[in-house]
Amino acid sequence: MERLNALEYLKLSKSQALWYNIKLFFSKIPAWIKSLFVKLWITIKNFFLSLKEGALDIKDTFVKGNWAVKLSFVSFGAGNIYYGQVMRGLLFLLFEVIFIVYTFILPTGGIYWIRKVHWLSKGATVGTVQGAMKYNPVTDTYGWVAGDDSVRVLLYGLLSVFFVIAFFVVWRMQIKQCKINMELHGQGRKIKGAKDDLRSLIDEQFHKTLLTPSLLGIIVFTVLPIIYMVIIAFTNYDAEHDGHANLFSWVGFDNFNAFTDFGAGGLGLALGEMVGWTLMWAFFATFTNYFFGMFIAILINKKGIRFKKLWRTILVMTIAVPQFVSLLYVGQLFSQQGVIGAFLERADLLPQVMVAQNQMSLWSNPVSSKILLVVINLWVGVPYMMLSATGILMNIPADLYESSRVDGANSVQQFMKITLPYMLFVTGPSLLTSFVGNLNNFNIIYLLSGGGPTNTEIGTVGGQQLGHTDLLITFLFKVTTGSGSKYYLASVLGIFVFIFVAFLSLIVYNVMPSTKNEEDYS
Length: 522
Prior knowledge:
By secondary structure, this protein is mainly alpha-helical. The protein has helices at residues 6-10, 14-64, 67-72, 78-82, 86-105, 110-121, 150-186, 194-201, 206-232, 254-257, 267-301, 308-320, 323-333, 339-346, 352-356, 366-393, 398-406, 411-439, 442-448, 472-481, 487-511; strands at residues 132-136, 141-145, 460-461, 464-465.
């Protein structure tokens, strides 16, 4: 696409400028995707180069090292202890002892479980011994004799993989420490001892001291669950195959093949419906709140408006009330028995299409239920945006508006040329966060419409009825909490949601002005 210079852009009408910006936005997407793959290739290339350099460094350390350094290749920390770093050496040795005990001594150790995962990769079940009711001749009764637990097999296998990776990372770390100590010793320089290490951890290395617990927490409570969820997508884990009473097994990519089913009740057709409505909902829910909140903030901040604090307080009252309470209450107002719903029915104000189809509640019609969701979301979300916009509007330099008035600009022109660009620049990342949040806005949909009304054209998907207002996240919830509880299908949908949201977020973030034209508003 041919780029216009500043003078050519100013000659465009408002509609032409809007269309130009839209085309410019989409024209940047292919270049961004190309740059993404280029960066990915460079990252992979650098990774293998670093592996090569690391291997050469390890070889050089072993060849030039003394007996203690060579011993550290087998016994962690030997080189550190030799050079006087007793505390470091003992910590390295303690990690090696823990790894050996966990892997080779404990009955449920890592290698035991890794072996099971290895069997499963060849097509066997996740676990081989099925639990069953067996007769006990001593007590002359039948009792449950536990077998393998598929859930534990996967969990211990995953933990073991991380443990093995950590083992090699620590091994490489202590070898690197040995080389540093060798070089310092050869130069006659002082090697840091335990006191120096402790002093460093609370001084120049204090950031590592603070970040280490957070990093471990992220790995244990975020990374591991995500990887475990991804693994579940390649099994048949559901209510029938719970992994304990009935073992589940690997199914490979069979679960992902369901995306190709575009017939009635097929996941492919249902996914298309859900993605379309999810994008529509996220767009309207985000930008209606954004612009309504901004306009209310502008009105309240306008000179001559009295009782500004009162108006802000009234709007903020919706924030003070717990959201789930207010949503449930408002949702009932529009039901057939609710105050507003009953009034519309008695006054014959419902559309004739709804009356003909006996959809006497606004929640029983696909169109009215979607409109209601967007409108009620305004009541919930506008106060937050109003508060944010109020603070930003107060920081816009007043001389910009004074200069524009001197040049003959009216209120609309001031908004389009000063207020809106400034707001979009400052709130760009926040707007993206709000959009992503609405893609996964479970509360509004579940508490108001429950995903309904039922989409009879698609029918049952994964044992659950798809609703016209179901988002990807609400349908995922239905799949995991229904009578069938198809966890594998929820995992597949979760992977799709992650890829979809991440890809969309990265594209928007990399083309928004907030990340590229910061100097324009500095």
